[in-house]
Amino acid sequence: GIENTLEDMYQNWPWFRELIELLAMILAKSDLSVAENYDQQLIPVAIKNGDIAAVGEEIEGLGKQIRAELESTKQALLRVSGKEDLNMGNDMLARELEVRTPYLDA
After folding, report:
1. DSSP notation for the chain
2. Above 90 in pLDDT, residue 96?
3. Which distant-in-sequence residues (6+ apart) come within 8 Å of 63 by Cβ?
4. Residue (of 100, 78, 79) closest to 87 by Cα position
5. Rounded Cα distance, 25 and 88, in Å
6. How far is CA 5 from CA 10, 11, 15, in A?
7. pLDDT tens digit string along 34-81?
8. pLDDT score of 13 more than 80
9. CB 93 within 8 A of CB 27
10. Long-range contacts made by residues 10-19, C-beta under 8 angstroms, separation at least 24?
11. What percent of the chain is predicted at pLDDT more than 70?
12. CA–CA distance, 86 with 73 (Å, rounded to integer)
């Protein structure tokens, strides 16, 4: 099927492998809990202020849909690459994210 073709492309086409690994790096740096926090903090305020009263629920649903799509994309990248995490064996990226995490959690 298509997944086998994508796995073959990942293994044998350097430019495709690079594309997959760049997407993985972007997703590795993304923190979906931050996006969810924005939804929880900002949407209710905007609704209360009347800024987005008519579409508040739609916007909240959009945020959930985007996070679900990002998670689905993450799983697809891991399947195609055969890797266990989004670092894709990039030790420098793993270290960068490790150093950055305490600052984000503060």
Report:
1. -HHHHHHHHHHH-HHHHHHHHHHHHHHHH--HHHHHHHHHHHHHHHHHTTSSGGGHHHHHHHHHHHHHHHHHHHHHHHHHHT-SSTTTT-HHHHHHHHHHHHHHH-
2. no
3. 35, 36, 38, 39, 43
4. 78
5. 8
6. 9, 10, 15
7. 778 877 777 766 666 666 655 656 677 778 888 899 999 999 999 999
8. yes
9. no
10. 10/80, 10/81, 10/82, 17/81
11. 69
12. 11
Residues 6+ apart with CB under 8 A from 91: none
Structure tokens given for 26: 């972007």
Position 103 pLDDT exceeds 60 = no
At 54, list the tokens.
């008519």
Range among 19-23, 31-35, 55-59, 88-92 with highest mean pLDDT value: 19-23
Site of tokens 């579409």? 55
